[in-house]
Amino acid sequence: MQKLSSVLTRFIHAYLSVIRLLAGVCMGLIVAIMLAQVFYRYVLGDSLIWAEELCRYLLIWQTFLVLGLAYSRGEFVTLDFLPSALPPRGKWLLRAVMAVPIIVFLGVIAWYGYNFASRFDRQTIPALDFIWTALTGNELGLSIRWVYVSVSVGTILMAFHVAADLFVTFRSQFLNNVSDESTNAGA
Taking the complete model, does pTM exceed 0.85, yes or no? Predict the structure, then answer.
């Protein structure tokens, strides 16, 4: 049991590190591209016609990658007047009941998001085609589907975060009937 817990802890740590790294790379690329765009427009009097489009796609991916992290950290807007009036076991039960429609909804969004993305297999990303053609003389031909599939990836990751939140709090809140604040104060 201890070995499984250790493996699970390492997996979660690796997952969080990868998501943070990808989000940081996306943000770094956005900043670098926008700085280059400002330099080209206001110093050189020219414009990078692909910059805004590429930054938009990077921002979309970054947003969907970090949705689950924001949920896990409690950074979504919540109305907590009912949960705050319940004992820890009641909070967990309410959270579990609310998780079912949330996970179903996220599954539906992932399904339809993937269905929508698959309709655009033959449409390419113009910004990347322009950049790649300028560098190599050939079009890259990367499908815009890879931008749209971010919806499915983000909603699946968020569903995992919702389920993981229930799993992590089960022992303390449901079995031991101890609130999160009590376990955090003792830690």
Answer: no
